[in-house]
Structures are given as structure tokens and as C-alpha cells.
Amino acid sequence: MILIALLTALAAFALLALASDRHRDRWRGVDRQWRRRGGWALVVATFVAAFAAWGPVYGAIGGTGLLMLGAGASFLVLNLTRP
After folding, report:
1. Are 16 and 39 in contact (CB under 8 A)?
2. Is 28 exposed, middle or buried (0-12, 13-18, 19+ CB in 10 A)?
3. Residue 8's closest CA among 66, 58, 77, 79?
4. Which percentage of the chain shows pLDDT scores above 90?
5. Which domain range does residue 21 map to?
6. Distance between CA atoms of 42 and 17, rounded to whole angstroms?
7. pLDDT at site 26
8. Are the C-beta atoms of 5 and 62 separated by less than 8 Å?
9. Does the pLDDT at position 27 exceed 70?
10. pLDDT score recorded for residue 33
11. Which residues contact 22 (CB under 8 A, 6 or more apart)?
12. How many domains does the chain have?
């Protein structure tokens, strides 16, 4: 369940970053509005998976940490690669 939470966090911030003005041209297949909605849905799914893995108290802390990891990873990947 922790791996699912990690993967949804990575995918959530990848979609949210690809919905931004700076990176929207990297993926032309899906409308920006759907990328943003999908990203927020995956943020919620990250917390659901973290709550299922660690319980409500540690799940909130772990889910926030996984989201920070996903944000940092997508920041590095999108800013250090060429468009």
C-alpha cells in the first residue's frame, strides 16, 4: 500500500506540473483542465492509500511526506530535462 501511495504521489505532481503554463506543451494528448483534475484526484488517492497503510495519524504525516517527495521528483525531472 505504501508503494501505491508513492506512485500516486509521483503521478499527481507530474500531472499538476504538466498542467502548468511552463510545461503544458510537453504532453499534448490531454486537455490541461483534465490534467489538473486528475492530479488533484491522485493527491486524494495518495492520502487514502497512506491512511490505509499507516492509519489516520501517521497516514497524514506519511502522505504529506510522499507528496513532498513527488513534488521534488517532478520538479527535478521537468526542469533538468529538455522540452
Report:
1. yes
2. exposed
3. 66
4. 61
5. 2-80
6. 13
7. 66
8. yes
9. no
10. 82
11. none
12. 1
C-alpha cell at 35: 490534467
What one-letter code names the amino acid at 11? A
pTM exceeds 0.90, yes or no? no
Q: Which three cell numbers stand for residue 79?
A: 526542469
What is the spatial distance between Cα 56 and Cα 62, in angstroms, rounded to a whole number?
10
1: which DSSP letter?
A: -
Residues across the chain: 83
- Cβ neighbors of 59 (< 8 A, separation 6 or more) are 47, 50, 51, 52, 53
Reference 77, options 26, 34, 5; nearest CA is 26
pLDDT at residue 30, rounded to an integer: 67
pLDDT in tens, 30-80: 677 888 899 999 999 999 999 999 999 999 999 999 999 999 999 898 888
For residue 48, which amino acid is it?
A: V
